[in-house]
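Researcher: We're teaching a course module on how sequence relates to structure. For the next exercise, students receive a sequence and then see the predicted structure as tokens, so they can try to spot secondary structure elements on their own. Here is the exercise chain.
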Amino acid sequence: MLAEATIGDLGERDFLREIEELLRNDRTDEALDRISEPMARHCRPGGVLPEALIDLNVADIVIGGWDALEPRMRQIDREGYPVTALGIEITEPAPGSEPGYHPLIETCFYTDSAYPFSECDREALLEGYSSYGTEWQGSCDDCDATITVRGLHEPYAAVAALGGRIRDPERTASEGEIQAYMLGASYLAVLVHAAVRKAVDEKGLPRPLAIFVAGNGSYPGFDAPIATHFDVVGAEPPRSTSTDPAAFRLDDRKQNETIEDAAPTDGDDTLDFEPQPDEAMLDLGNADDAHPDEFYELPATMGHVSGSQLRKRFVTDESIALTQESEPESLIQRLLGKIKPRS
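Model: And here is the predicted structure for the students to work with:
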């Protein structure tokens, strides 16, 4: 029987939940510090983990395929439903295959038909997460290998090999090995989260997108948002149904332009605009007298969905039942091959 991995006073589940919570609250550096302290004792000469792992940092990681996102999303965009979210998912190597030196990454493309990504801030996006998965689970429009992760090299291969040894039914894993694997795999996963955040900050995005990194059938399976539409553009994205990505390029968005900014070229090319006289404006005080059969009401808010609104929208008797029936899988369960890919 496999030993239970603990970190200080925390069991495996509680420790991993703490790390995931830090990621979901955009506190990646704190998550790395929280893992590296207990991991350090395993990263020494003769230790279970390679010394190079503790020295690995986000600057070593290269996120590839960023420039290919725009043309790829253009192929996937549907009329009225452009791609509004990107899932970067860390997957497990096929059984029996060599893990290699790089994690396998699936790039999943989502539209608002799966979840109202374009209307969500971080709080609202987090409402889509639960103990049994996400509201958009299994609802991507397409999935491929556009994004790659490079730079983890030998440390990644060593941690993957350690996981293989722990799974070996012919041997008994020690508590130290299980703890080292839990910490090493968690550290690498958080580094991928940090590297994607760095790519968003430094390279930008071709359009407003919600970005999240998740483990798809891989341990430890952290799932957390990296950015939302509002993080990327700093303002509400346009309600465009165009399938042309040019409509979403940040460089083309001129939200702060005013009429004064657009100076005419000739006297004859001035805007033909004449303000309406005050007398012609709608007199709200006499609206009922002027239009007895009509009434006016404020339009519904469309640009932003709060967390409480989404809670009302998505929390149902069915979802509550699913949550109650679901228990987070432990490392022991995962190592025995009970992980179910999200697909």
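Model: If you want an answer key for the exercise: Residues 16-243+303-335 form one domain. The mean pLDDT is 77.
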